[in-house]
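Hi U.,

Before I forget, here's the chain from the pilot set. I'm dumping it here mostly so it's searchable later in email.
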Amino acid sequence: MTERIFRAGLITFAVVSTVLFAAIIPPALIDDGFDFWGGALHTFDNPYAAGVSIDVLLAYGVLASWVVYEAVSNHVRRGWIALLLGLVTGLTVALAAYLLIRLRHEAEAARGRTPREAS
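Structure:
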């Protein structure tokens, strides 16, 4: 797979995830009187949904650990943007955004530019 196809795939997944999120979550929030915490707790209503929800929450923790680790060890900057996006739109968008940020960092490093010079 070429990098161009990889980038296009990441962007596609992020866009599809955002569109589905926007189509599903706001109408449900409106119907529930904007009870965000109640809606979040409903993800644990049955064992299957709870299992998926726990997996997603822990995977977000793994992503956060990876972002912090690479910020320190490889000087990958702006990973916090991906984590912030993940809090709003979910793990799919966060992971795709971080991989795009990381690809840009690697391209700049390959051209011999430090992260500070590239900013």
